[in-house]
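One example copied in:
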Amino acid sequence: MDGKPERPAEETTEILSRWTGGDTEALERLMPRVYDELRRMAKAYAGGSNTLQPTVLVHELYMKLIAAGSLEVKDRGHFLAVAAKAMRRIAIDAARAALTQKRGGDLRREPVDGNAAGAAPDETIVQVNDALEALEKTDPRKAAVVEMRFFGGMEMSEVASALHVSLATAERDWKFARAWLYNALGSQS
């Protein structure tokens, strides 16, 4: 180096490159750099859930990343996209487990308190996920836009960068996908 300190984005990219190359300690250096952003994303996922807190979601993500060893990530935006997908999986698994328990899967009897609204957020998360999986089968890029934007809380410029498309293309994909999901979710009611 020429004595100038690296910019934070370049440092993050370098750490990601080391992690992709198998440097397991690089993940430990990466997490403090992206923790606040991952926590913001986790709030979007956990917002409607009765079963999952944002901090728990980020920690579950960290455990999954440790278990993976290293992933093939190109840059910071790609890492956030991968994190959004992993968080979605964790959130869906938690919502499905909560719904299973509410439907008697844990074989406990609990008094009925008349508050059925408590089940709605987890059911909604699962319904949105199921619709998103259907969209993934026909248009994976549009589904990725929803995942990063809706679930991950990423800005449209970040989504466009992660997908390597123009901002206009990402915005068109977002508009189409929202309408598609609205129709798909409306048919489930």
